[in-house]
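Tokens for ERIP6 protein. Go.
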Amino acid sequence: YPSGNLAIIVVREKKRLTCIVQEDKPSNAEIQAVFKSNGRSTCYYPNGAVWINMSIQGGQYLDQEGSRVRRWTWPNSIMSSGPHVPLSPIFISLNRHVGVRILGQDKITVSFLAMGQQAKFNVGTKVQVSDVGQLPPLTWLGEDELLLLAFRVRILRLCDRLHGCLNFPSNEQWDKIKPPAYLITQTLKILQLCTTSDISDELRSSVRAIVNA
């Protein structure tokens, strides 16, 4: 950066490369984006919330509250279920000097502009057809997001049950109270995400225990 602080780091680990964008701070700089040559990349809002999350099968764009604005799949990805969703070009500014442009799986560019000079980094990747059988499970959400969703559904179910108990004070009626359809649907979606997401077995069990408690 013009301040002299490190803006972009490219790290090589064996045959893989990782591009990291940092905020403009002299120390304890937060990471604003990570792009890996294996196709997994994440961009963050200034408050630390996930902005864009991508895998070798597709990606999603979130708002600062964590709600999904849009998602897409890459043309050459093999989805286990669901329709193919094409990508609409994405342009975001991580800060006043660094921007990200996403036009395709192999057309992802990090642009750095300062003091009249510009540098561009191509951080896209391309999955070969021969690699399709080795694709990892589809990951739309990270571990923290899955836990937050699970706790959110659990709290909503507890609130709904409390409301039902207030309306039906008799103990005999409590076991007959069922959660509303939208909570059942959200629970099923989270359980499905646990099956398709690339997370540890321990976390998968924890999420299931939370929503099923």
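The chain has a mean pLDDT of 79.
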